[in-house]
Amino acid sequence: MASTTSRLAIAIAGAGIGGLSAGLCLARAGHRVEIFERAPALREIGAGLQITPNGAAVFERLGLGPALDKVAIRARAVRPTDGRSGRGIARFALDGGPYPYRFLHRAALIDLLADAARDAGARIVTGQAVRAARPETGDLIFETGEPTRHELILAADGLRSVLRPLITDEAARFTGQVAWRAVLNGVEAAPEARIWMLPGRHVVTYPLPGGRLNLVAVREQSGWAPEGWDHAEDPARLRAVFADAAPELRALLDRIEATRLWGLFRHEVPERWHVGRLALLGDAAHPTLPFLAQGANLAIEDGWVLARALEAAPDLDAALGLYAQRRGPRVRRAIAAAQANARNYHFSGVSRRIAHLALGAIDRVAPGRFTARMDWLHGHDVTRNWPAIARMTGHSSLE
Ligand SMILES: Cc1cc2nc3c(=O)[nH]c(=O)nc-3n(C[C@H](O)[C@H](O)[C@H](O)COP(=O)(O)OP(=O)(O)OC[C@H]3O[C@@H](n4cnc5c(N)ncnc54)[C@H](O)[C@@H]3O)c2cc1C
C-alpha cells in the first residue's frame, strides 16, 4: 500500500543547509520539489562548519560520503585547552565511530547539496523572497511575482523565518552570548578542534581544506544593542576581549584581518511544527547555541525524517505530526546540552579549576567516556529503524 503522501508538490522557503538537504531527501523520495531562496545567488557566510557523525549518517545513506571527503577534513580529536595558559587539558578522539566527523567550508557544502538536489530533480529558484503563505490552501506568496500553490510548504528560512509566526508566536530572544567569526589563511593545523576556554569566553579553532583555519570566538554579554543580528567589527575589539589569552591564541587573533560579530538568538522549540500544509524545518523550528556544532546537523536529520514520515503515514497531517513527534525530544535534548556547554566552557575561579581537573582525569583514566557520553548525539542514526516502516508501506525510494 503506497501512502497518499508519496508524490507531493513541495515548496521549500530557504536554500540554506536545512532547505537544500531536505529538498534532496524529498526529491530522492519522488516528490516534486521547488526551493525558493531570497538571496540572488546561493551563498553561505564565509565560515567553517563541523558535520558530526549523526549528520554524516544521512549523507552516507544519500551516497554523498565520497563527495564530502573531497571538500572536507576528517577530524581526529577535540582538545579542550586552557585559553589563558595554552595548556592542553585533554584530547578526546572523534574518529572511532561508524561515520566520520568532518570540518569543511559552508560554501562547499551548499554547492554539493545544491548539485545533488538538482540531480535528484529539485528546482532551485534564487532571488525569490517569500513573504507569506496560506497554510490551508498551500499558497506561497512572494515579495514580487505571482503566488504559487503547493501540497506542502516547508519553512526552512532560518531563525528569522517569515513563515514561523503562522505556527507559533514564539519570538527570538538574545541569549546573552555574542560570536565573532573569521577564517585565517595560510595556517597548517592538526585535524583537531581546539576549544580554548577562558572565564566568560571561549574560542573554537579547527582547520579547513586549503591551509585555512576557522575561528569562532564567543563571549557573554548582557545586551545586544545594534539593529539587526550581525555587523562588521574591528578585529582590534576582538583582540582586546582576549588580551589575557595564551600567546598561541593571541598570535592567531593577531592574524585576523576582517571579522563580523553575531548576537546569538534563539526561541523555544514549539509544541506544534505544522499547521495545515505548512511545516517548520531547521533553525526555523529549533535554533540552538552553536556550542555543540549541531544546528546544521539537526536540520540535516530533519530532512531525512520528514521524507520518511511522508512515506510512513497515511495522510499529510499524520505525517507532519509523526515528523514533529520524532524530532521534538531529540532537538530539545541537543539544545539543552549546547546550553550546558556555555556554562562548562566559561567557568571562572574555583569551578574552572575543578572542571579542568575533571576533564584531565577523564582523559587519563577513561578516555572512552567522552565518546560514550556523546553517543546519544553523535551515535544517533536517523536513517536506522525506518526501512522497516518503509517496507510496511511497500514504498521506499529515498536511497
Ligand atoms: C558561530 C556559529 C557556528 C556554527 N557552527 C555550526 C557547526 O559547526 N555545525 C552545525 O551543525 N551548526 C553550526 N551552527 C548552526 C548552523 O549554522 C545553523 O543551525 C544552520 O545553518 C541552520 O540552517 P537552516 O537552513 O535551517 O537556516 P539558515 O542557514 O539560516 O538558512 C535559511 C535560508 O533561508 C533564506 N531565507 C530567509 N528568509 C527567506 C525568505 N523570506 N524567502 C526566501 N528565502 C529566505 C536565507 O537566505 C538562507 O539561505 C553554527 C552557528 C553559529 C552562529
UniProtKB/TrEMBL annotation:
Cofactor(s) demanded: FAD
Listed GO MF terms: FAD binding; monooxygenase activity
Domain FAD-binding: 9-336
One family name in Pfam for this protein: FAD_binding_3
SUPFAM superfamilies per UniProt: FAD-linked reductases, C-terminal domain, FAD/NAD(P)-binding domain
Top-level lineage group: Bacteria
PANTHER family xref list: GERANYLGERANYL DIPHOSPHATE REDUCTASE, MONOOXYGENASE
Protein name: Salicylate hydroxylase
Species annotation: Limimaricola cinnabarinus LL-001
Taxon lineage: Bacteria, Pseudomonadati, Pseudomonadota, Alphaproteobacteria, Rhodobacterales
